[in-house]
Every structure is written in C-alpha cells, then in structure tokens.
# Entry
Amino acid sequence: MDTLTLLFHGTQAVFQPLNFLFLILGCVLGQAIGVLPGIGSAAAIALLIPVTLNLSPTASVIMLAGIFYGTNYGGTITSVLMNTPGESASVVTAIDGYQMAKKGRGGPALGIAAIGSFIGGTVGTLGLAFGAQWFSDTALKIGASEYFALMIFAVALVTVLATGSPVKALLMGVLGLLIGTIGIDPDLGIPRFTFGQIKLYDGINFIAIVIGFFGLGEILVNIERKVQDTIYTQVGSVLPNKQDLRDSAAPIARGTLIGFVLGIIPGATSAIASFLSYGVEVNRAKDPSRFGKGAIEGVAGPETANNSFVNANFIPLFTLGIPGTASIAMIMSGMMSNGIVPGPFLFRDNPDFVWTVIASMLIGQVILLVFNLPMVRIWVLLLKIPYSILFVLILEFTLIGAYAVSYDTFNMYVMTISGFFGYLFKKMDFPATPFVLTLVIGPLIEKNLRKSLEISSGEFAIFYQRPMTLILLLGAAFTIIWPVFKWLKMRLKNQKESSRSMNGGA
Amino acid sequence: MKNKFKLAVSALSIAGLLLNAPSASAAVYPAKGKTITIIVPYDAGGAGDIGARMLAPYIKTAIGATNVEIVNKPGAGSQVGISALAAANPDGYTIGFTHLPATITTYLDPTRAATYDLTKLTPLAMMVVVPTILVVRAESKYTSIKDLIADAKGGAKVTISDSGILSDGHLASLQLQQLAGVKLQAVHSTGGAATTADVLGGQVSAGTLNVGGATNELIKSGKLRILGIFSKTKDKTFPTAKTAKDQGYPIYVSTSRAISGPAGMSASVVIKISSAIRTAMLNPEFVAKANAAGLYLKFMWPNQLQTYWSEMQTATIPLMALKNS
# Structure
C-alpha cells in the first residue's frame, strides 16, 4: 500500500469520535500549557500518562502528541505580549515579538507566529509520513563533532551582528557561558560552582532564569517611571498585512528547514532550532539593525523552526525507538505503557496506530491554526488593560511559573534574582540575546567538544578530518571574519578618500 | 444518685484509658488515614517513574493502606530524592526508589558529598533488574567480545559508548578493560537514547545498553547485535546471545530498581512492606502491565537485597578510582 492510501485510511480513523475528541483535547491542553510559564509539555505528558492507560493506545498518543506540538503554539503568546517566555523554545520569539507588541504590532506578531507554526508543523509531519526511514538513517551520521561545529556556527551567526556595543555583547555572552558551567561536569561528574548545594548540581534552571530576566526585568524597568496607563502605544491591525506575509515567507521556509534538520537529530532541543533560525535571519537580512527592535522575520523564522522541529522529532522515535528530547521520551513511555514499543518494526506491526497518529498530527496543525488566528484578537485585548493592573498579573505569572519548574521555592529565588539582573542589564544597555544564547548553547558546546575528543581519543584532527564538521567550522569562521573584512575595507576606502580630498581640494 | 454518677464517670474514664492504648510500636501499620509516600528521585515520566506508578496501587491493596502516593523529587541524578529519603522519619510511611548502581556511585564519590550511604538506608525489596549488554551495529565486524578485545590489543582505537560516567555501562567497560588488560576508550553520552544513536550511526565501535523496551526491537530487527550479556544467566528473549562469563570475562553488571526506606525502621514494618511489595509484584494484572511496558521484574527480600547491594558496593569501590580513565 502506498503512503497516500495509508495516510487516507489514517485520516478516516482520526475522525472516529473518540480519537477526534482526544485530538482536540490534546491540542487545547497543549496550547494552555504553552501559555503557562514554567510547566512544559514534558511534565504535562508525564502527568497524563496514567490517564491514558484507560484509553486505546492510538487515542492516548494522539492526545499526548497534541500536547507536545500544541505547546509550541501557546508559548508564543506570553512571549510576545508579556516578554515572559513560557517555554525555552519561545525565548527567541520574545526578543523581537515583544518589541513588536510595544509598537502596537502584537497582533501581526501572533498571527505570523501561528501561520509559521502551522507551515512548520505540517511540513515536519509530511517529512515523517513520506521519508521517515531515510531521514533517520541520515540523521545518525551526524556525530558529536558535527553537532559541536553546528553550535559554534549558531553562536557566530547570532553574536556577530549584535547591534550596539560589541564589548557589551561579548560580556553577556561570556556571562552566559559562565552560568552554564554551574552544575555537575557533564564528563567527569564533578560538581562545579555549586558551593555544596545539591539543588545546584543540575545547574541553574534555564526557564527560571529566563522568566526572571525577561519577564520580571521588563516589569521592573516599566514601573520605574511613573506607571503609565498603557505602555503599548496603539493596538494596530490585528492580523498580519500583505507586507508582513511577504517579508515572512522566506524566513518561514528557512525556519522549516532548520527546525526539521535539527528535529531528526537525537539530542537537539527546539530552543536551539529557534536560535539557529534567528541567527540565519539576522545574517540574511539587508538591514540587520532592525533585529531586536521588532523585526517580523525574528518571529516568523524561529516560531516555524520550533514547530517543524517538534514534529520531526517523531522520526527517530518511530523508526528506531530513539527519543530525541524529554517530551518525546515521555510520549515513548506512554506508548510503551500502552503496549506499543517503537522501533524498526513499528510501521510494519502497528500500521493502523502509526498512520492514525501521523494523520492526527496533520489535522492537529489545522485545528491549532483555526483556534489561534481568531484568538489573536482576544489576546491582543489584554494589551489594553491598564499597565498598573497588568503588571501585577504578569508578576503573579512569573512567580507561579518559577515555582512550577520544580515544585519548590528555590527557583522562585532564582527567578527573582534574575529579574533584578535583567533590570540592571536593561538599564545599562547590555543586550540579552547573547546571554540567553550562550546559556543554552554553552553546555552543549562543551559536552560535544569533550565527547568528540573522547571519540578521537584526544586528537583534534577529528575537527578537520570529518567533512561536515570542517564545512560548518569554516562557515563559522567566515561569519566572524567577513564583517571585520568589510569594516577594514571601508576604513581603507575612507582613508583614501579623505587623503584624496585633502590633496585634491584646493 | 451521687455515687452512681461517680461510678459512671470512673467507668467511662477507665474505658477511655483502655481504648486510648499508646500508639507508636504497638499500633497497627499502616494506620488508618495515613498515607504511605513513595519517593521517586527522578522526573515524572522518567526513569522508573512509570513502573513506580504502575506498582503503587497494587502495593496499596496488598498492604491495606488508605493511600499510597508517588512523589517525584528529581535532581542531581537521584541525589536530591535519596537525600530526602534518608532524612525521613523511619516510621514506614516514607519509602523510595534507590536505583543501583547510581545510588552507590553517588555516595562513593567524595565530590558529590552525599549525606547518605548504605548504613543510612534500609533496603526493603528489589523490583526490577535489567542486565547490561554490550552491543554493536549490524555493519560492525565484531561478533564476540573476543573480536573487540583482539582489535584493541592490535592497536585499533576501540570506543565504547555508555550512558554516563559511572553508569552501569561504564562500570562494565571498566571491568572489561581490567580483565582483558587493554585500553578501551569510554565515550560518555547523556543516556540510553544517545548511546543507541551513537552505535547505530557508527560514531563509536560499540555501546553498553540495557535489555528491554525499544532496544529489544532493534536487536530483533538485526540493527543491533549483542556481543555479550553481563549477567550470570542468559536472557530469555535472546537465548542465543552469550554471557560475558561464557566468553571468559566474569563481569556482572546490571541496572536495578530497589525500594528502600530510611535507616532505623522496625523489623515488623520492614517485613510488612516487603511482603506487600511481593504480593503486588505477583499480581497477574500487574505482571501483564509490566510485561507490556517491557519491565524486567525481579523480586528480592530485604536480606537478599542487602547482600546484592553490599556485593555491588564492594565491586564498585576499586572502580571509582578509574572514574576518569
């Protein structure tokens, strides 16, 4: 039977009452969990697995998968409207999305995010349907050294074109690296910078830092002046206009590709996909200084990337039984608790299950798009609430979110302290992006660097002997050198011109 | 009238005294209305959580408690949760999962500054024991541990992926290096999934995994090949796979899920809990669910578990020094 026929049968099965009910339930729950900061899809899926034991395996996984990709639709909302990323994947969206909201363009930001998410999610699912085996075999060829080089490339892309003082950007980047080292050494198992606190053995929680740094920091900056009635100038059109769609088309295409490629590699996270997409957009833009001030490409690309990532993540799970991220590992637990073990025989032994779930993912994207676009109007109404009331709500949100991370008060302290630093750094004009980037990517760079060296038994040759690694590292080097080169050329040109005018002028 | 009143009062008060028998040791365990808390030192849905949640209701019925509740206390690779367990009241209302060898390597490692060790815990029962295996991918030229060792002795760089420093797989490869007298490069990954990806993708020569779950599917389909099983007996699912002992390397490593309580629990409570766990684990409904989820159930009584744990601890101590080789 060819894929289209199987997919058609799967789609029919999705519309059975029970399956459809749980698909909608999963999407709505996922959306809601995405909006709530601190609680991620992994925790939600884990809590719901016992519930699924009473359902058919198909309905269970349809719901759990819906929660997984639905979260990425919901996380955007608090990122854009309140500068409080609810999930690590939505952190990048906050950078430009919130600035757009402040300029009255919150509606278009949310709208484009929903459209991009839909396209990314659909393409990701189609990849799963039509090429799962090939993609997963290819993805296995990506090893620690390639991953390391890719991360270096991502850092180069994002930090090179940082606007404002490059010294400040570098400082923030290094700070992120430093904080990322706190915890148990990934390789030698020795606690670093933990001062004997076992709560720090896993490092400082990223979500807690980010909720504080972005969310609480923004509140503190805003209430420092006399609390104005609203901090948002005007709420313009609610949906993206034609120009927005035109500007976002290419970023969405690129974001889909980036998210998909990272999604099939076990071990990546959607946060990395969105950062990489942001980096690529910054580099490809004609006027990179727009980023950080409300560039719609900075929302379109990353949002698409994280949705395409999430759906592509099912590929290694279904074909080889390898869960790439924590949430997918939960879904795998859910499958196994229901008696379905993923692996090479999954498509062969459980075709009904597989194709119904894949079809449900496609229909789920449609459901979420239809749910989100009209809701944009309602979300944007939140911006009309007087800030004197709104900021209290956001503050509560950040506190609850910080608690939800690990169900104890430790992360609430982390969040609060991060908030004060976020305020300070904003006042002193230190950019947040490099900090968050290295916080996420730093530990991965270290882990993969050391793993590569273990594989090569200490020889650095591994970084230039493997072709893909070499290409990526050269790309990173080029990204860094090119702007310096251009700057030197301009300096020389200016010097020549000024000396010519001095000599040529009478 | 007054005398009858006095008599009534004294009768009632004596009755009251008799009914209010002192609680503590003479009370029935588990007391009505009290909850037994089982601490799982990993994230919800993570290692052992699903199995624990599956077992909890059956323990409740077997022990006759009003409520049995799972509480997740993740962090520091089970150190946070087990620290809480060791510090809890040894009245039998707080027990928890202590996975081996993770628990042992944590407290043997001085840099971890663990607040517990075997003397501060009471082993209650063993639930799951999963043997560790050495696997290669289908395209690999190795068909036995001998091939791998021979290759290493011949000077080839042999890399073995494991799921983390001092994980069961790492301990196995350390022992293999000692017995075979050859250097094998350990590549630490972040877990079984990453190790599987490394092996399948040819990034490493071999990997250490546990039988069960998705790994079994990969072996059955031929994508992975077992070089050796690090246990005393062969595996039922893969009867043709040789043990490491049969190949000349008596290495016994497994990952297991033991249930323990804080030190100082009374003997009667210990027996009650372990018997209840045994009854729960023999329940056919539970066994069916566990098999469907790919759990390798194995029960041990407290004294058996104590012996198993001490032996593992003794075998692990000399390996701790090799941690960074």
